[in-house]
Amino acid sequence: MANADRIKHVASIIKAYREKRPVVVLSAMGDTTDHLLEAADKAVSGIVDVAGVAQLHEDTARELGIDIQTVQLLLDELKQLLTGISMLKEISKRSRDYLVSFGERMSVRMMAAYLNSIGIPAKFYDAWDVGFISDSHYMSAELLDDVWNTIPSHLDGYKNGTDDAIPIVTGFIAKDAAGNITTLGRGGSDLTATMIGAALSVDEVQTWKDVDGIMTADPRLVKDAKPVPEVTYEEAQELAMFGAQVLHPRSMLPVRKSGTPVRVKNSYNIESPGSIIVEKHSGKVPPVCAITSVKHVSIFDIVSTRMLGAAGFLAHIFNQFLKWNVSIDVIATSEVSVSCTVNTKADLSGLIADLKNVADVNVRTGKAIVTIVCDAAHSSAILASGFDALADEGINVQMISQGASKVNISVLVDEDEADRTVTILHKAYFG
Questions:
Q1: 102-147 pLDDT, tens per residue?
Q2: What's the whole-model pTM score?
Q3: For the chain, how big is the Rg over CA atoms in Å?
Q4: Which long-range contacts link 3-6 to residues 24+ away (Cβ below 8 Å)?
Q5: How far apart are CA 150 and CA 179, in angstroms?
Q6: What pLDDT was estimated at residue 380?
Q7: Of 179, 202, 225, which marks where a domain is finished?
Q8: To which H or E segment does residue 209 belong?
Q9: Which of 101, 198, 387, 390 has the fewest CB neighbours in a 10 Å radius?
Q10: Is residue 131 domain-shared with residue 93, that is, in the same domain?
């Protein structure tokens, strides 16, 4: 949420769905996390300053006409934390999680206050108040299996109708067994929402974006892009992995386990049905679902004659990537070579040096992955029509890989040709 107008808009959506007894999950107000991290940097250098965070929330509260005493208490707590950081002149991962949690915690308090001010009963909850327990892997914590039981036990009253106040819950954060605040890493707010939905066995989880659901391509790039009515969990995960603004792959795990549908809707067009994410397609499977792209990709070409009949060579190669904590996105192999892609801004010199101890290594930068999420049963026809279209436009495909999931085909092209590749393929598949 960015400001008072955005809070009012979200409140209008909540009001429209009031009769369906929603549980609402919120992230921090716009720019709050950046302000908090700036405050942390200042604190490490000895300056305690909460002015940026305080002004954003005080100005917003004034515009909304609400009392934010609960937010003021959090600002006081934040100041105490920053004072401690300034004395130590350092910030640990645990302290960082505690610090960034203030954004979500202030957000739910302001939304609950505003909803109550317009006559909609609401109650704010920090995630641990509704049973979110995680491990102690700060900055990227994993939820414990206990949450499948603790969440329903805390929200049963609302679900059963004995409590009418709409729960407004913080996304992204939890507490470990020792009571320390943790953050859930990338896609943490999505994970909070899907975990609540799955644990409560709701009819569907809704996530609200600024487009009419999952699109056949990025609408900023392809003007003719259109909503995809239905995708499977597997397809949604592949889309998210390869650049589409869909739920983070981690967030799909709880709903896949429970079979809970997820609907992606447009917050600026609430009448639009959006896109539904389900276990299996309800009707005929479309040959191509969507096309997406990821830029700033590097290709590692690793060649060694020792690979010929050498057991464990690939394992050794992958162990080097593990050692340097570099994730592989796409891979293709032959008898004597392996090519793989990475998408990272990290320094790769150490990894390259280790790989060169056992093989010839060539690294090509400035590449992009263009992914076609599709029905593997039609892969031959999809490849034929797609490659014909690319050949006609002079696009050179440098690598191709079909994912083990059998719902995607990825091609590697030069980064400066990525947008044109997406546009050409979209026209070939969707007209």
A1: 999 999 999 999 999 999 999 999 999 999 999 999 999 999 999 9
A2: 0.89
A3: 24
A4: 3/29, 3/30, 3/60, 3/63, 4/59, 4/60, 4/63, 4/64, 6/30
A5: 15
A6: 85
A7: 202
A8: strand 205-209
A9: 387
A10: yes
